[in-house]
Design a protein that fits this description.
Helix content: 25-40%
Strand content: 25-35%
Low-confidence stretches: none
Number of strands: 10
Radius of gyration: 18 Å
Strand order of the largest sheet: 6-7-8-3-9-10
Structural class: alpha/beta
Length: 242
């Protein structure tokens, strides 16, 4: 059963077509990776799904609810069910790691001080950073910031996870570590997930299915193995050069 349904989605900026009649479904509990070169509209797609950007046309349905045109109160209610890992982790630089994770909990849940601390420590432990709880973001490496961002995105146990270039800016070894962590957390929490990336190593580790975004359109969708056997030279070429 599809939890996320995208139909005929289009978006342009300054007469430039970023998304053109995009269609896809994401099955409940599965991970769809949207592959594409930088600047192909992958991040725009995620922002439309969470209601940060309005499309020019088309439909976005999450668990049967139409996101496009949703009133702010209902949109905020829907967003509570989503976790979002931004490209740069988007940590609050003036807050410690502890307070970065505390922030979404205080906003969305009613927990006492001990329960808050237990959730925060437990979530940091799952990403291997319990010892960094009192550090400031400026004291963390790029990979550590990603891990904290991931912990913060998951701390409210979201039904849906959205990853915007989760390994960008990281060296290959750290990128693989983050990808393996994403896979482990997917198996543990089983959210319905969309990850947009141009990192083939990440895609091979985390994807159940893959869609290729090219010139604003989804060329093909399937498993990595099936797309590598595609009769379409441009699809096979993507995997050969990615």
């Amino acid at each position: 059963m599809a939890l996320i349904e995208i139909r005929n989605l289009s978006k342009s900026f300054d007469h430039h077509d970023v998304l053109r009649r995009v269609d896809f479904d994401v099955q409940t509990g599965s991970t769809l990776v949207v592959l594409g070169k930088s600047g192909t509209g992958k991040s725009v797609l995620l922002k439309i799904i969470v209601g940060l950007i309005e499309p020019d046309s088309g439909s976005v349905r999450v668990d049967g609810v139409e996101v496009v045109g949703l009133k702010r109160r209902e949109l905020n209610r829907l967003r509570k069910r989503m976790g979002y890992l931004f490209q740069g982790a988007a940590l609050y630089d003036s807050m410690s790691v502890r307070d970065n994770l505390r922030f979404p909990l205080v906003r969305h849940e009613q927990l006492d001080k001990d329960e808050l601390e237990e959730r925060i420590v437990g979530q940091l432990r799952t990403v291997g950073l319990a010892d960094a709880i009192d550090k400031m973001p400026a004291e963390l490496s790029g990979g550590m910031r990603k891990r904290v961002g991931l912990a913060r995105a998951l701390i409210t146990n979201p039904q849906i996870m959205l990853y915007d270039e989760p390994t960008t800016g990281l060296d290959p070894i750290t990128s693989r570590e983050i990808s393996l962590l994403m896979k482990s957390l997917q198996e543990r929490y089983q959210p319905t997930t969309i990850a947009v990336t141009h990192d083939m190593q990440c895609a091979r580790i985390v994807a159940d299915t893959v869609a290729i975004l090219h010139d604003g359109m989804l060329d093909q969708q399937g498993t990595i193995e099936s797309l590598e056997r595609s009769n379409d030279d441009s699809v096979r070429g993507f995997f050969a050069t990615a």
